[in-house]
Each structure stands twice: as C-alpha cells, then as structure tokens.
Amino acid sequence: MKGTAEELARADEARHLAAIENAIMEANAQELIITVGNHTRTLRERPVTFRCEWCSNQGTEMRLPGPPPRYHTECKQEAQNSIAKGRMKRMREKKTAKLPDGMVPATRQPEDLHQ
Ligand SMILES: [Zn+2]
User: Fold this and answer.
1) Measured in angstroms, how far is the CA atom of residue 78 from the centroid of ligand 1?
2) pLDDT confidence band for 53 (50 / 70 / 90)
3) Which residues surround ligand 1, an ion (CB under 5 A)?
4) Where do runs of H (alpha helix) occur along 1-115?
C-alpha cells in the first residue's frame, strides 16, 4: 500500500512529535545514585512502554531500569484495591464453604485455654 504525500507527511510528523516527547521525558528523568561500599551506581529513568494489565491500554512511563511495570500509575491503586477485595472475598467463601448447612464454626471451650 502506498500512502499519499499528505499521509506520509502526517506519519513523519507523528514520529517527530514522539521523538520530541521522548526527549522531554528523558530530560526530566530522575537519577538514583546508589552507593555500595566504594562503588557508586547511577540509575537513570528511561521511558518504558508497556501494556497495562488493568485497562489493557499501552502506556509509556519513566521508570528506573528493571522489569516493566504491570499497571499505569493511575491504574495501580485501583488494581490493587480490586485484587485485595477479590482475595478477601475468596477467603470468606472458603471459610463458609467447608461447613455443611446449619453448622456453625466450633468455638474454643474455656477449658481448652488452660491446656
Ligand atoms: Zn492502565
């Protein structure tokens, strides 16, 4: 497929804008200086493109070297809240699922406490 001159110009402009955006992000990058004994390591943030597991959109964020993030900064709190809620729900279901109908969880008798 052959694009028109206008399409090519637009794609070129988009590439150019993305390059400028990356350059600005890199210029604002935070540096983390780690000193271990006599060694000093400087970790510098760089733009990392990843797919957010929460909203499944792609995003680019400044991150220190390491594994890419799983969520956008703005999605992380929501995702973690949801995960915590889901875990509590499963725990509650597990607790009650084991008891047959009409049975209540056994409670410790006072004499047990003295053993
Ligand atoms: Zn997200």
Assistant:
1) 9
2) very high
3) 52, 54-55, 72, 75
4) 5-27, 73-97
